[in-house]
Amino acid sequence: MSQPNINHRRSLQIFSSLTLVASLLGIYAIANPAINGYLPCLINCEVVAANELLNQNQEIASLINLKKLDKKAISLVIEKSKYKLTVYYQKKPIKSYAIVLGANPKDDKLRQGDKRTPEGIFRVKELYYHSEWSKFILLDYPNQDSWRKFSQAKARGEVKVNDDIGGEIGIHGVEKGQDWLIDRRINWTWGCISLKNKDVDEIYPLLQRGTIIQILH
Asked: Which residues of the chain are modeled with pLDDT < 70?
């Protein structure tokens, strides 16, 4: 048998194997929807994220006149299922950023230690620099609505009597050199929202105590 024929057969075998792997991944993704957020990142996470995010490659200063900024008109919307934080100004979306969440990202937070990111409407309680994660934007979790959900969960038996509701939920960056956690959608926090440091640095000056942050499923 000639060498070209051998190479051709090997190419067909490799192609068949790759096709089988792709098919198996597709079947597994259908049976396990949670993996869908990770599969696209096997190719090129940054390109995928950029295609989904509003004004990803523009600086916020080119979109808002920071010298005339009215901080009272700023709000944030976090869409957990889309791994996205969007800055709104005067009720209009201005720019979106890629985020990751608590290690158990799907459901609403009910208690301390469940590694879930809470859902609902919150306000900025405090803003301060962080030695490891660049900035920390502390939310007013638990608020009145959080306590209501916590009590209801206890009544249903989903939360133990001695469980605590938790706290210290906020928005922050990553450790130096760990931007890849965001690119690959690795949910690494205990319930906080994490961005790349350059992104949290950009939104930090826009905020003040009382800024509204809505966290959606």
From this structure: 1-51
